[in-house]
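Response to reviewer comment R2.3. The reviewers asked that we include at least one raw input/output pair. We reproduce the pair for Anti-sigma regulatory factor here without editing.
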Amino acid sequence: MQLQFDIRGMDFARAGQAAAQIKKVLQQAGMPAGTVRRVIIVAYELELNIVIHACHGTITAHISPEMVKIVARDRGPGIPDIPLAMQEGYSTAPPHIREMGFGAGMGLPNIKKNADHLEIESEVNQGTVVMAMVLNKV
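Raw output as returned:
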């Protein structure tokens, strides 16, 4: 099964809706709660990264009984230094985003902690593609 969501940059009113829809589908499919929790953390963080940093993007969830693969693609500024961006607390979010309670620099580290496999491809001034896979460990 595949679900795809269009995400608009700076659309905080709808932020989290894709992750909520993915959660609903996984629960209806009978996916174990621990797997659902990990997938939703990954999906939510990827969704928020698009909202905060990009003009627009997509979140695609590829769901099978064995695993869930989340792919986030965005048209945004890109990540110039991926290892630095993976450090807890590092953030390029502007002050007005931080004042809203976002941009604490925990998004990519949280994704890494909850995914069994993570790949990040990014080109400055072009965008970023993140693929995170969560295995259904039954």
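The chain has a mean pLDDT of 96. Helices lie at 17-28, 33-53, 82-85, 95-99, 107-114. Further pairs are available on request from the corresponding author.
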